[in-house]
Amino acid sequence: MTKFRLESSDAAIRRAAVQRAGAWKASALVSRLTSLAAGEERAVVFAALRDIGGNAVVAALTKLVAADSPVAPEVRREAVVVLAALNANAALPAVIAT
After folding, report:
1. Is 47 left (phi over 0), alpha (psi -120 to 50) or beta?
2. Residue 58: which of 35, 28, 88 has the closest Cα?
3. 33-69: per-residue pLDDT in tens?
4. Which residues, 6+ apart, have CB-to-CB distance to 71 below 8 Å?
5. What is the 3-state secondary structure (H, E, C) of the chain?
6. Torsion on CA atoms 76, 81, 86, 92, rounded to nearest 10
7. Residue 2, pLDDT above cutoff 60
């Protein structure tokens, strides 16, 4: 049900759904949350990804921070911070490049 609320046209409902995904550690939503990382709820999305943690989040964030990633620099920076909190070794190449 949370996945459907991630698609809501109401920003408050989307933020609440993202927060709930993090609180529930909903690893099944990592891909969808990552796709929202460049949007209005960026800070909430990264907080949720940090809360979810695990290999799926590390893998998704590693793709976001890759040199060939099309995301904006501010999104990449936030992704590096969360990635470093979850797995410093995985974040090291991105930290050096940033």
Report:
1. alpha
2. 88
3. 999 999 989 999 999 999 999 999 999 999 998 888 8
4. 37, 38, 64, 79
5. CHHHHHCCCCHHHHHHHHHHHHHCCCHHHHHHHHHCCCCCCHHHHHHHHHHHCHHHHHHHHHHHHCCCCCCCHHHHHHHHHHHHHHCHHHHHHHHHHC
6. 80
7. no
The structure tokens listed for 95 are 């930290």
The pLDDT value recorded for residue 13 is 93
pTM above 0.85, yes or no: yes
Q: Which two tokens stand for residue 29?
A: 């939503």
Task: Return the residue matching tokens 């929202």.
Answer: 36
Place of tokens 């990382």: 37
The percent of residues in the chain predicted with pLDDT above 90, rounded, is 73
